[in-house]
Design a protein that fits this description.
Layout: E1 10-12, E2 15-25, E3 28-37, H1 59-73, E4 86-89, E5 92-99, E6 102-108, H2 125-145
Antiparallel strand pairs: 1-2, 2-3, 4-5, 5-6
Length: 146
């Protein structure tokens, strides 16, 4: 599997559809997808890989396939968008959440849907993003030095 294409992710009815290149046939990309659920592990589709078992020929095609599957099989529908404050930095997915006057984040690396966020609270979305960016920039600098 290649990296997850977070920059092409789509929030849909409580899920985040994340496409990726599954493989190539005759020099054409074949796309698949993974899901995140706003209700986490309470959903059968949280961190699921292509539960529809159908693949696509383009990013928009695989997103449509995922939406159709969710329309037919999802155990819940959300009308709020908890994935609206999502950012991609150095191919990492950062999802910012706010409760009251505190911000926190989920952080997913380029190839895995494993949340590697530090258990830290912030006063603002800007403060949170700045802290994450500083950490990722420092990580890249250390890797270059090796």
């Amino acid at each position: 599997m290649s990296r997850l294409l977070y920059e092409s992710s789509v929030s849909y009815k409580g899920y985040l559809i994340i496409p990726f290149v599954f493989g190539k046939v005759d020099n054409h990309n074949i796309y698949s997808y993974k899901l995140l659920s706003e209700i986490g592990h309470k959903s059968q589709f949280h961190k699921a890989e292509n539960p529809s078992t159908i693949y696509g020929c383009s990013i928009s095609n695989i997103v449509d396939i995922a939406k159709e599957h969710l329309d037919q099989n999802s155990e819940f529908i959300s009308h709020r968008d908890c994935f609206k404050s999502r950012y991609v930095y150095r191919n990492h997915l950062i999802i910012i959440s706010q409760e009251g006057d505190k911000c926190f984040y989920d952080h997913y690396p380029p190839e895995l849907l494993n949340n590697i966020a530090a258990p830290k609270l912030f006063k603002s979305e800007y403060e949170c993003l700045s802290w994450i960016k500083q950490g990722l920039d420092g990580q890249q600098m250390r890797q270059r030095a090796i």
